[in-house]
Amino acid sequence: MDKTTALATQILAGIGGEENILRLENCMTRVRVEVRDELRLDLPALKQLPGVKGYIKQGDQHQFIVGPGAAAKVVDAMRSLFNGAAPTVLAGGDDIARTKAQAKQKYAAPMSGALKKLADVFIPLIPAFIASGLITGIINLLKRPDIAGELAVNYPNVLGLLAIFGSAVFAIMNILVGVNAARVFGGSQAMGGVMAGILSSPALAQITLFGEALQPGRGGVIAVLLVVALMCWVEKRLRNLLPESIELILNPLLTTLVTASLAIMILQPLGGYISDAIAHGANLAIDKGGLLVGAVLSGLFLPLVLSGLHQGLVPIHVELVQAHGSNPLLPILAMAGVGQVGAALAVLMKTRNARLKKVIKGALPVGILGIGEPLIFGVTLPLGKPFIAACLGGAVGGALISYWKVATVITFGISGLPLALTIVSGKVMLYLAGMVITIVAGFIFTWIMGFNDPEE
């Protein structure tokens, strides 16, 4: 039996077997499970499993951190062990569980639900953002004579093609957001793409309305989100009002005419004002706030992650890149995860717990690469003080990154050492210096504050 199957078998036994699973899914690093009977859950045993690097509970969901790449494999292995159908969604026969889940969804906090929708719109785009940012970073390196010699001069077509590869996601950004937003808001995905296409059409520049020429793409993703939300609302209302015999024909026609008209006259200008305010406000805060703003942003970022409020920052990342071509916010926030590396190193040197040492050694490499969940939920957060010390270390690094005005060409999706490839020209060494200082700061704060070393 391979390690993945063995771990899947052990987790399945620890959560009370297949019949106790109400919902099973995974994200990048976690196996997420909702169970019918909490009493059948053996959490002490599950936390001690060799492949489980950490545990956290959010609402009714138990989340076991097994690491990047491993989470999907473990969930697939668990499903292969089921005798019946895999419970990827709520079980249809359990009316009590279904009612409970629906009630929870209905009465959830409005802010939490809105932020979850934002995340659902942008998270599927992360692979495209990562590819785009890394390709752009490679282009910046190849343009430097001290690194690539005369490559840029001798092979301009190569760089030209790479530039197309790296910029493609931004060329269709609004369309992608429109399609995803329509899916999240419960409308037609094709119509969502059409709405975004109307807002981005170059032909808008040839039209004058109320004495002013229209601006293609004004408002960026903010305008797209507003317009697609309205489109979904109109589409649903017309679906209920129109006779079935003509609904298929008239609904898309009327939805397009009504929504697009309101979009051009009201929502796109409104989105433009909001977008400008976000971009200028974020840049102004970083420029004028300097050390203090950087420290606050980075120091408080991980507590925001724990609460889920960090999802509200995603449109801000996108707007900064769309408006200015670079994002000064992401490198600041990246220092929050780097601080966890320094804190974990201090714990590694101080602890006598063999299992904790093993978890840290397994989580440190991916932590340096920007995937901090195994360190956060498996090491620093359970110990308490090291998590606070790591946040303080991140605040030190965030302050310096803000002061040095380090920016990246990527919106979001990567962090840690790989982010260095996407940093704007002339600031790469400052970003790397910020990482080193943050690791040292996190280490020192943790060493001074100490922690209660867990027994085996």
UniProtKB/TrEMBL annotation:
The keyword RNA-binding does not apply. It is found in: Cell membrane. It catalyses: N-acetyl-beta-D-muramate(out) + N(pros)-phospho-L-histidyl-[protein] = N-acetyl-beta-D-muramate 6-phosphate(in) + L-histidyl-[protein]. It comes from the Bacteria. The active site is at residue 27. Its EC number is 2.7.1.192. Gene3D superfamilies: Glucose permease domain IIB. GO terms for molecular function: kinase activity; protein-N(PI)-phosphohistidine-sugar phosphotransferase activity; protein-phosphocysteine-N-acetylmuramate phosphotransferase system transporter activity. This is PTS system N-acetylmuramic acid-specific EIIBC component. The lineage of its organism: Bacteria, Pseudomonadati, Pseudomonadota, Gammaproteobacteria, Enterobacterales.
